[in-house]
Design a protein that fits this description.
By secondary structure, this protein is mainly β. 0% of the residues lie in helices and 44% in strands. The strands form 2 sheets. Strands 2, 3, 5, 6 and 7 form a 5-stranded antiparallel beta sheet that branches. It has a two-stranded antiparallel ribbon with strand order 1-4.
């Protein structure tokens, strides 16, 4: 999972469009991924492969217009292993 954060510099947007770099069957480009509500500044992109590089950009939209995209963000999800230590019930009070 990747968490994308951006600054909401728009005052009257309807929402935000999130794009991910990918292959659409004929060419490589930023492909629409999802939308987020107005005043949102966080989006979680899930189902990604560890060790793969991903590129995202965000636009604000209102009615039939869309802002210039943000600078693209590059991210590399990685696997985090957590070792859990069993706790004996006698330690719990």
């Amino acid at each position: 999972m990747l968490s994308l954060h951006w600054h909401d510099n728009s005052v009257d947007e309807t929402g935000f469009n999130i794009y991910r770099w990918g292959y659409d069957g004929s060419s490589w480009s930023f492909i629409f991924l999802d939308s987020a509500f107005a005043n949102t500044t966080l989006y979680s992109d899930t189902g990604l492969n560890c060790g793969t590089t991903y590129y995202h950009e965000v636009t604000a939209y209102k009615e039939n217009s869309e802002s210039t995209p943000t600078e693209f963000a590059e991210a590399h999800p990685h696997l985090v292993l957590i070792h859990l230590i069993p706790v004996r019930s006698s330690y719990l009070s």
